Amino acid sequence: xxxxxxxKDLIKLGFPKNNSINVTLGQINRYQKRIKKxxxxxxxxxxxxxxxxxKGDGVWGKIAESLLDPVNVTKQKLNTHRAPFQIYGExxxxxxxxxxxxxxxxxxxSVAGALMPDAHVGYGLPIGGVLATKNAVIPYGxxxxxxxxxxxxxxxxxxxxLKGKKHQLENILSEHTKFGMYETHKVKHDxxxxxxxxxxxxxxxxxxxxxxxxxxxxSGGGNHFVEFGVISILDVNNEWDLPIGDYLGVLSHxxxxxxxxxxxxxxxxxxxxxxxLPKHVQHLAWLDLNTHDGQEYWLAMxxxxxxxxxxxxxxxxxxxxxxxxxxxAKIDNHHNFAWKQxxxxxxxxxxxKGATPAKKGELGIIPGSMTAPGFxxxxxxxTESLQSASHGAGRILSRRQCKTTLTQSAIKKELxxxxxxxxxxxxDEAPMAYKNIETVMKNQQELVEIIGKFTPKIVRMDR
Length: 463
Description:
By secondary structure, the chain is of the alpha+beta class. The protein has 15 helices and 17 strands. Strands 5, 6, 7, 9, 13, 14, 16 and 17 form an 8-stranded mixed beta sheet that branches. It has a 5-stranded mixed beta sheet with strand order 1-2-3-11-10. Strands 4-8 form a two-stranded antiparallel ribbon. The longest helix has 32 residues, at 292-323.
């Protein structure tokens, strides 16, 4: 490519001697490495002469912004007072998770917050933390697994089918669900998601398209699962007019795979550069939604969320085909995401990091553990919880504690006691690692009402 592009080249071109030079070199280095220097300089000159027309461009938009309206990087201070908040099931939550929320509530952008009854310590925001902010999005407030979500399909099949066809069902899960870093389906499915503009317009996302295509319909490691179980409809006035009783259900938990993880990593890095915070809260660095990077992250985050949904749809489609049945109901929800939502009469960005959206009438699923029931719920629209509920039972033992205190034989006994068949699953996902889901549900009666119960019977996780 000849000599590497330098700041001097840009000054010669007429670039002002300010941060626009660093921004330009950074963007070129990241996304245009293989382009000839002459070609880059020609394009850079066009941007310099007419930055307005490049505003939405994936590579040059950030450079145009640095010429027109540079991002103001200033050391941020925490407020001395916390924004208003509410904690549910306070006695069941460790202090460290509370302190994490308290730090987040002191950010100058924070409007309100809440802690769900399954909360425990995370990076940046605690897991089970909900935070409303003004015109800013915190990548670590969304989490690494963007769009991590639940999906439940209900079949017009009696629950007794689980006993009679146990081996066939185990075979479906072990042969036709894929987990972890390397397993992918032999026969790949396409999806309209891959036609989305973001896959062409955002350079980082463009690079991840092939990986996303390969991983469609697969699940992550850790606490992600696909399981067959008994779904008991308890509410006579349910949304699908199903008679009260027990049905066959398929429940999945997974997120946006490598696509979401890479988006989270990239934009967290950009946020920490643009928003220097005191060291102990640096993970809460945010992107202003009026900036190029803030807008780009918002688009990329929404794409990752829709991709996570497409993955679940594919998993459930494959299983429905193998069962030879059509589902009669489907419920799904994100629990690692940010939404635009009205709070105290103004539009805010509501981050839910391990929390289920619970607007009035909104349906969601709150899982227990592999031996404890999960619940199909209907939101009550509680404004103090920012219209949120827990996303599960929540951990009481960290992954490390599981490895040092639990044994495989104790897990085996627990599974036998509940008549649960497990394929894969590490010691760190033992049922004993989780809080009592019944207590968690008791602590959020003002947030959701229960309309159904899912009892796992055949569980597949990463091996």
